[in-house]
Amino acid sequence: MTQNSSGESSRPVIGVIPLWDEKKDSLWMLPGYMQGLQEAGALAVMLPLTDSEGVLGEAARLCDGFLFTGGHDVDPQVYGEEKSPRCGAPCTARDRMESFLFRAAVLGEGKPALGICRGIQLFNALLGGTLYQDIPSELSTRITHVQGAPYDVPAHGVRIAPGSPLADLLGTDSLQVNSYHHQGIKRLAPGLEPMAAAEDGLVEAVYMPGKPFVWAVQWHPEFALQWESSGKLFSALVRACSA
Ligand code: MN
Predict the structure, then answer these.
(1) Is 91 labeled as catalytic in the residue annotation?
(2) Which tens digit of pLDDT belongs to each residue from 173-201?
(3) Does some domain include residue 2?
(4) How far apart are CA 42 and CA 153, in angstroms?
(5) How far apart are alpha carbons 135 and 202 in whole angstroms?
(6) Residues with CB under 5 A from ligand 1 (ion)
(7) Cα 2 to middle of ligand 1, angstroms
(8) What is the CATH number of the domain that holds 168?
(9) Ligand 1 center to residue 19 CA distance, Å?
(10) Per the domain annotation, does 113 fall within a domain?
(11) What's the number of domains the chain is made of?
């Protein structure tokens, strides 16, 4: 909570990247993103889907921080690769919008950001890393990274890097997580530090040292708000936005 001009506590405003459904030609939102942020003390606001730099500049001024949500595969063009047939259809509007917000507001102005699923992949791509375009055909692993419903049960474990901010936050060196992603970090971007990895070596949490708060996870806390770790992750973003 921050203090407004009349001395009352006010909720930090967190801009949430909208999801896009091309079949319905509609924006949509998973309630867990909004609820997780609200329970952590924020006012979560779903942003418009736009690449207007004027509008996004206004959003960057309005918002104290950002949640980069799950969604479409990042266009491999963003990290300089050809699109594999197993890569999903991109959402160019999101790629452009999130690229601008990340560079201008997060890197440029130091606004806090949490990335989830596509979010960790996007941060890695924008910072010069690459992605597995399709984990099942590109990574030899016994782990199921695409679980079926229900999504609030763990699918695999992650080892948390000792001494990392995530280890400090959760107070543990391992965590059971859900897993619903067919892409993931292939070559880690310079500027990102791993905070957690699956047993097959896949990096599942990162942060940017030297930035106030740029964190991302490959799993889905929004599907499992009842987990202590999920509440702590949303709270960490909200705390950073209140600082
Ligand atoms: Mn996974």
Answers:
(1) no
(2) 999 999 999 999 999 999 999 999 999 99
(3) no
(4) 26
(5) 10
(6) 145, 179
(7) 35
(8) 3.40.50.880
(9) 21
(10) yes
(11) 1
Mean pLDDT, rounded, for 30-50: 98
- pLDDT digits over 7-39, tens only? 567 999 999 999 999 999 999 999 999 999 999
**Of 63, 87, 91, 117, which is the active-site residue?**
117
Strand locations in the chain (E): 2-3, 9-10, 13-16, 19-21, 26-28, 43-46, 65-68, 113-116, 131-132, 156-160, 174-177, 184-185, 193-198, 203-207, 214-217
The domain of 231 spans: 13-242
Q: Is position 145 annotated as part of the catalytic site?
A: no
Q: For 150-173, what is each residue's pLDDT tens digit?
A: 999 999 999 999 999 999 999 999
Q: Which residues contact 59 (CB under 8 A, 6 or more apart)?
A: 15, 47, 48, 101, 105
Note if 8 is an active site residue.
no
